[in-house]
Amino acid sequence: MSTIYEILRASKGAAYSEDQIKKYSYLHLHPKIDKPAGALAGRSRIHGDAAPEVQDRIIDMLVEIGARYKLPYRDIAHLLLFCKIESGFNPDAAAGTTSAAGLGQYTKATVEEAAKPEVSKKRLGFVLELDGHVFDAERGAYGIVLSYMIAKERAIKYFGKGYESKAYLFHHEGWYFRATDDNMDDERPKAVLKIIQNKILPYLDPLEKLLAAKTDLKFKLLTKDDKPYAGQPYAAVIPAKQGGKAPGAVQGSKAAPTVVLGKTDGNGMTQAVSTPGLSEILFVILNPQYQDLLHIAGNSVEEVHVVEKNETLSRIAKDHGTTVAELQRINHIANPNQLREGQELRLFDGEYLWRRPPMDLIGLHLGRKLNMNPAAAPAIVEHKRSHIALPTGNQAQQHGGDTGVVAIRGGATAAEVAQRKQTEKVPHKTVEEKIKKQVPTPPPARGPALREGLLFPLAKRPADDYHKGALRFNSSRGARRHAGCDLYAPVGTEVRAMADGVIVQCYSFYWHTDAVEVDHGGFIVRYGEVAPRSAREQLAMKGKEVKRGDVIGKVGQLIKPNGSRHKDTMLHLEMYSSDLSPLKKSLTDKARGPFQRRSDLIDPTGTLDKCVLE
């Protein structure tokens, strides 16, 4: 039996002759491919001239995006065929006779149209910016999905139930093509209809069947040095709905999902999770002592709201300090008056690929299974990701020669894991025999300044003393200790880089604020609780060089899980004494007590004391 990859992989097309190439075409303007190492790229600008592994990754990307938008299997099959016809899954394909380029062969006019909020944001939930990025594989994939959505809408308008045999017409001829009898009699539309008959319709049924086929997926947990994590507890959250015309989803679904608990075997492998094709699986790695933490209260930085009977979107928006338009955008709601009781709404922005499910959603589903306090989720969850079960034959979900395996590699070596287990459970004599108490590792001692003469991160020192009370380093935070110093300041106060450096990453942090991690050369600073940025703005900051004194953010407004504003606002500042990239080993390590941070965490108090203001 064929796989979707065998059906879809494209052969290299014909090259344009020199006399065919127009001066305004990308083939003339950008004949050579210039992309950073690791980026998905073609071999040339020719249709289909991309390595099989590149084509397969483009196919996987389109499949995942289609599943995330809850498109039916048949629609996903259809948009895949759009891409095969247009570019042959070559992200760097370019026409010689027009300005068409990229996966969807968007012309300059189409790029401008796609950037309009009423076009892309209405359908995708964000503005699709392709200007200057037409050869970017991920943006191009979203372009394919957007164009299919529009083409289908237009085809239904003109042809009703017969839209399937006409949809591609509105991509090829343009989104606003008027399919009147006179226009359909022209030669170009007739030629497009032949393409549909020969290259689309014969493949919809087999592709739909292959996309929907049952999939078995396992997860393999590995240490940084590729040793198995044996005996690690985990949870797999899978859709309650099995089968149907569209992939099953956990996020945004009204039905309660199925939660499977287990421990990895001696090879670090989980049991197989069986689902229909393209189903969403939320995979959660649990704290080894999670059963002792089921009823504590943790701090969650994300939140979902479950719609109650007769609740309106405007009331939900008001209660949570947001707007109806924002909730519509985040949750892809076309009609704000059509809410379902039990529907789960995201309250604040997140990654538009939804790969990081909200902690509150994880807590909700684990709470049902474990009879736990949902607020304990941040304490018991060490890792959470949303995965799409890709079709049979994919190269992405493989490891060590085994198919249907997602490998997840931790940031610690096997030796570090063994040492951590020894230090986290220390036998402690008590009155009762054979009882062990948890004894946390002693906190780092407050010492001298890491470096003197750094710039204080705010323009003036705060009136509230960061040496005292809850503001100080190592103050109590319930189940953990405070890992930084809190510098109280009004919302909007500029946050300055303490020294020259490079921004490692920017991401959602705590109670709807962001954190910016900066490598200052020899030490790393996490500037936390700054005003949030969009996913696109966060991505744009990655790798940006900063100079001492550059503004890297502003103090943000903390918004509590109930939607109210926290009375205090601040810069939360953490310091780390090495330049080990957080991309290789996260600064947060929930398994490491008592701070739940990396081992190179230091007390920033002495350094802040020695900072200068100018």
Question: Could you explain how this protein is built, in words?
Answer:
The structure is a single chain. The longest helix is centred in the first third of the chain and has 23 residues, at 137-159. Strands 14, 16, 17, 18, 19, 21 and 22 form a 7-stranded antiparallel beta sheet that branches. Helix 3 (52-68) packs antiparallel against helix 4. By secondary structure, this protein is an alpha+beta fold. The protein folds into 3 domains: 4-210, Lysozyme; 215-303 and 348-409, Immunoglobulin-like (Sandwich), CATH 2.60.40; 469-609, Glucose Permease (Domain IIA). Helices cover 27% and strands 16% of the residues. A hairpin with a 2-residue loop joins strand 12 and strand 13.
The proportion of residues forming helix, as a percent range, comes to: 25-40%
Which stretches are poorly predicted, pLDDT < 50 over at least 5 residues? 423-447
Largest sheet: 7 strands, antiparallel
Query: Tell me, what's the shape?
Result: globular
CATH-derived architecture of the largest domain: Orthogonal Bundle
What is the residue-averaged pLDDT? 88
Question: Helix count?
Answer: 18
How many β-strand stretches?
A: 22
Using the coordinates above, name the CATH class of the largest domain: Mainly Alpha
What is the fold named in CATH at topology level of the largest domain? Lysozyme
Q: Assign the structural class, choosing from mainly alpha, mainly beta, alpha/beta, alpha+beta, or little secondary structure.
A: alpha+beta
Structurally, the number of domains stands at 3
Which band does the percent of strand residues land in?
15-25%
Distance between the termini: 70 Å
